[in-house]
Design goal:
By secondary structure, this protein is mainly α. Helices cover 74% and strands 0% of the residues. Helix 1 packs across helix 2, helix 5 packs parallel to helix 9 and helix 5 packs across helix 10.
Length: 187
């Protein structure tokens, strides 16, 4: 088998989607690839580096989804595209989604994908006229709202009551839109 760092990380990312991010280990990746665990060390430094690689893959995937979802949009349409891109990643690639909810190492947080994601956050907020000094607060609030909702949805907390989660999701996006409009007018 011809391994490379990117191939090992890509395979580990697929494994994370299958068994959960926290269950990914070097030995599990080695078994999946049909190699001995020590042979992975020539491609990834250690488990932390492997997990940072998965997080970088997740950031790139999310950045691509968001770019497509917000292109040519502003205001609530951009916000909905932004939020729906997160929801699609959580649904389609649950292991990647989980990898975004940990303290990542420097390689992941300084990656091109991480910078792209920051730029897309700013692009969404431009449509609301959020002052630069307030952007970090808004990004944290919006991110917390999206992450909280999707985390609860992913573990099935919304399965036992009506309305459907999709209805609550739409209401949450509308509420975020209202809040961002009022935040932009707050000195």
């Amino acid at each position: 088998m011809n391994l490379s760092p990117s191939a090992v990380v890509a395979d580990a990312a697929e494994l994370a989607d299958e068994i959960g991010f926290d269950a990914v280990t070097l030995s599990a990746v080695a078994r999946r690839l049909g190699v001995q665990t020590p042979s992975l060390y020539s491609h990834v430094r250690d488990l932390a580096a492997l997990r940072d690689g998965i997080t970088a893959v997740a950031l790139a995937d999310l950045a691509g989804r968001i770019a497509q979802a917000i292109a040519g949009r502003s205001g609530q349409a951009a916000l909905a595209g932004f939020a729906n891109a997160h929801r699609a990643l959580a649904t389609d690639r649950p292991g990647l989604w989980q990898s975004l909810h940990r303290r990542a190492g420097g390689a992941a947080v300084t990656s091109t994908a991480a910078r792209d994601l920051v730029a897309m956050n700013d692009a969404v907020l431009l449509g609301y006229g959020i002052a630069p000094e307030n952007r970090v607060h808004v990004i944290r609030f919006v991110g917390s709202t999206i992450t909280g909702f999707l985390s609860l949805e992913q573990i099935g907390n919304f399965d036992h009551s009506q309305p459907a989660p999709a209805d609550s999701w739409a209401a949450a996006i509308a509420a975020l839109d209202t809040l961002l409009i009022s935040w932009s007018s707050t000195p």
